[in-house]
Amino acid sequence: MGEVQGGDGYRDPLNLGNASGATETALSSTSTPTQPVRAASTRALILGWCQQAPAGGQTSWTPRVRRGGGTTGALVGGANAEGTEGGGTNSMPVFIMVVDPLVVQDATQYTVTGQQAGAAGGAPINQNSQAVFLVG
Q1: How many whole angstroms separate alpha carbon 39 and alpha carbon 32?
Q2: Which of 12, 16, 81, 119 is packed most tightly, with the most Cβ within 10 A?
Q3: Residues 129, 13: contact at Cβ < 8 Å?
Q4: How far apart are CA 50 and CA 76, in angstroms?
Q5: Cβ atoms 19, 46 nearer than 8 A
Q6: What are the DSSP calls for 33-75, one per residue?
């Protein structure tokens, strides 16, 4: 069982407006953790959550975690598309948890993103948060 070496707590959200069409949108991003990575077996545990109000016509929402800032970083993990609940009228919570083996002995920045399908317009993101913990 590994020990938690430290973490980069909840970060201010990047986007509390609308997720745009079918384009992947950055929701929250961490700064680079300041804790030193103590062992080669250290892993980063990334937790991300958002509350999304589906746009008209939206059929699903796919959360992802990327290494680095924004939507162009390496994909660390992606969940299956979450079907839209309530025919697009209810807000829906979406959660993702991934583990990233640190390739180098430096911790890195992570971004939680989301992408909707089936909607022509933007889907409101009501709230979101993210946490990164170094475990080893």
Answers
A1: 17
A2: 119
A3: yes
A4: 18
A5: no
A6: P-SPP--TT-EEEEEEEEEE-PPTT--EEEEEEEESSSSSSPE
Tell me the β-bridge partners of 28. Answer: 13, 112
**4-135: which CATH architecture?**
Sandwich (2.60)
Please, are residues 98 and 77 in contact by the beta-carbon 8 Å criterion? Answer: yes
Gap between the terminal Cα atoms of the chain: 8
Q: Tokens standing for 75?
A: 């994909």
Type of residue at 23: T
The tokens describing 10, both together, are 């909840």
pLDDT tens readout for residues 78-121 = 888 888 765 556 778 888 999 988 765 555 788 888 888 877 67
Position 62 scores a pLDDT of: 87
